[in-house]
Amino acid sequence: MNIYGVALLALSYLLGQWLGEALGYFIGINANVGGVGFAMMILMLLKEWFIKNNRLTHEMESGMDFWSKLYIPVVIAMAASLNVKSAVSAGTLALAAGSIPVLVCFLVFPILVKNFSPKSNGNPS
């Protein structure tokens, strides 16, 4: 059912927006910094958690796949509407806001791969 995908997408979107607002507040600007990126990461982590705990049904997987495929075009449309001139004029802050999440992802990705890799069933293939 697609409703499961909508519920998880909504949950990840709300958490991501909250984290983006909190990050913006902590850096000292009145803006959402990386909220959509946080939401995408939360959605991926939720899906992997469901897979790891054998709670992902076919209906849930198809719903999540459907909405995650729609999510990327929405993100691109949102990014296209941003004021690029003001982001570039921010200089160092814009570079930090772009490079810090990338570096964090590079550090976190190996941990995620290690912890969420599928367990072998003992049969050599």
Automatic annotation (TrEMBL):
Record keyword Transmembrane helix present: yes
Swiss-Prot/TrEMBL keywords: Membrane, Transmembrane, Transmembrane helix
Cross-referenced Pfam families: MadL (PF03817)
InterPro entries in the record: Maln_transptMadL
Membrane-crossing segments per the record: 26-46, 90-113
NCBIfam families named in the record: malonate_madL
Protein's UniProt name: Malonate transporter subunit MadL
Organism, as annotated: Shivajiella indica
Gene name of the record: madL
